[in-house]
Structures are given as C-alpha cells and as structure tokens.
Specification:
Structural class: alpha/beta
Organism: Algibacter mikhailovii
Helix content: 25-40%
Strand content: 15-25%
GO molecular function: magnesium ion binding; phosphatase activity
Strand order of the largest sheet: 5-4-3-2-1-12-13-14
Number of strands: 14
Pfam family, one: Hydrolase_3
Radius of gyration: 18 Å
Distance between the termini: 17 Å
GO cellular component, one term: cytosol
CATH superfamily of the largest domain: HAD superfamily/HAD-like
Number of helices: 10
CATH topology of the largest domain: Rossmann fold
Protein name: Haloacid dehalogenase
C-alpha cells in the first residue's frame, strides 16, 4: 500500500472510527494533528446526523469536513456544501408501511433535529445515542423542516426484518442496510461516494489520492470512489469484497493503524 500520495482521508464513524462503546480514541486525535500538519484533508462520513458527528469530534470540528446522513448533508466550517432532502412524494406511503410494524422504529432526520414517534419511547436511550437532538411526534405532518433521511431501527436484524418491507421504494429513493439494526431511506443521490466526489472536485483531489475506511453497505460508494479503500476486520462480507485492503477491527484501532502508516510514508517521502 503506497500511501505517499494521499491528500484526502475519509472514514465512516460507527463500526469504523468509533469503538463498540461509540468512543473515538485519544490516539486518533493525536494522529489527526499530524494529518493536519501534512495538509491532508479529513472527512468524517457517517449515517449519523451532523450534530452527532461534531459532538464526537468536537475538539477538531473546525478543521474537518462532515458528510452526515450518509452524504446527504456536507458541511465545512459551518457552511453547507451539499444538501439533498427527500422527495416529498411517497413519504406518507412510507410512513403508513412503518406504522404497520411495531418492531420498526423510525427516525426522521433533519439538519438540526431528529424526530421519533411517540411509540418509540421505550427505546429512547438507544435512539438518542445516535440522535441526541430529538423531538417526539405522532406523524410526519408534525415536521416542518426538510427531511434528509428516514432511519429505520430494529433491535434484532434489519437485513431480514426491515429491508424486505421497504425494498419496493427503491424506484424513488435510496434504500440501504446501514448497520445490523438500521435501514436508511434517502434521496437517490444521498450517498457517501457522491459527497466524497464533490469534495474531491472542490480540492482537485483524485481517487488515487484518497484513502477511505468503512464497514457496512452505506460505505460502498465511498470505497469505490477511493483507490485506497480499507475494510475493517469487523466489516460485512460485501465491504470486504469491495475494499482493496483490510485492517484491524474498530475495537483494535484499525483506522489508526493505517493512519500511522500514512503519516510515516508521507514524512519519509518529504
């Protein structure tokens, strides 16, 4: 892996940069300072909302680019670079399907706040870990802001218990399994690869100069947009088949391991 030409690093959060306790390591923040000194752009790309990502990375938020909601919202220095809200047509049909299944808990995501249904009160501690700014509602009719994404949660297996029920909406939306417990419904162009391509074009960076880390299906486009694509050891089979390289798990500082190699390579190259 020749990392001497890398100018852009992008990583998923949950299952990748974050450990299983949803924590960022102290080592990462130390390595980030090295990346910054080398003028390497860092992008945090996640299915999480913007405010949750910057909360996890609060000490460096002014020096990074955030691709939130699976790339549906891209923000740098408080400036919105990209926003792709959901098409309104069909949302009520999606909500009707959700309401037919008590095991599915929806999160309606806007730029500054998430909306949970009153029927999800019992699992608020789980949902609020990912969406700390939230409001309870009875219906999407109560939401006045643009909806960037609908995240559907199930405590068992999203691939089996959620995805088959919503696959039919793929003709108008992007429907993807984004984690063991999550299925995301977004705008067709709301993906991490589209967001990274936008950033690459802005900074005149090629895919050959991009290093990306991921673990689940919502990382596919991002990995394909990067020559140096790295799957976590804990990644699913699809991601491991797509990625060019593999690293240790998120609980074993797999991202940091590669970043250390990148920094060493760049310093030697100088």
């Amino acid at each position: 892996m020749n990392l001497t030409g890398i100018k852009l690093v992008t990583t998923d959060m949950d299952g990748t940069l974050l450990n299983s306790k949803h924590e960022v390591s102290t080592l990462f923040f130390e390595l980030f300072e090295e990346l910054k000194n080398l003028d390497i752009i860092f992008v945090a790309a996640s299915g999480r909302p913007y405010y949750s990502i910057v909360d996890k990375l609060s000490t460096i938020k002014g020096n990074i680019i955030v691709a939130a909601e699976n790339g549906g919202l891209v923000v740098a220095n408080d400036k919105t670079l990209l926003s792709t809200p959901l098409n309104l047509e069909g949302l009520k049909e999606i909500e009707t399907e959700i309401d037919c299944h008590a095991h599915i808990h929806p999160v309606f995501c806007t730029k500054s706040k998430a909306f949970f249904k009153n029927s999800s009160v019992a699992i608020l501690p789980i949902l609020s870990e990912y969406y700390p700014n939230y409001q309870l509602i009875n219906s999407i009719d109560d939401i006045e802001n643009e909806i960037l994404k609908i995240a559907l949660f199930n405590n068992d297996d999203a691939q089996k218990l959620i995805y088959p029920l919503f696959e039919r909406f793929k003709s108008n939306y992007k429907v993807i399994v984004s984690g063991q417990h999550w299925v995301d419904i977004s705008h067709e162009l709301a993906n991490k690869g589209h967001a990274i391509k936008l950033i690459q074009n802005m900074y005149n960076i090629t895919s050959e100069e991009t290093l990306a880390f991921g673990d689940y299906d919502n990382d596919i486009e991002m990995l394909l947009q990067s020559k140096y694509s790295v799957a976590m050891k804990n990644a699913n089979r699809t991601i491991k088949n797509i990625a060019s390289f593999e690293t240790k798990s998120n609980n074993d500082n797999g991202v940091e391991l590669i970043l250390e190699k990148l920094i060493k390579a760049r310093k030697q190259f100088k």
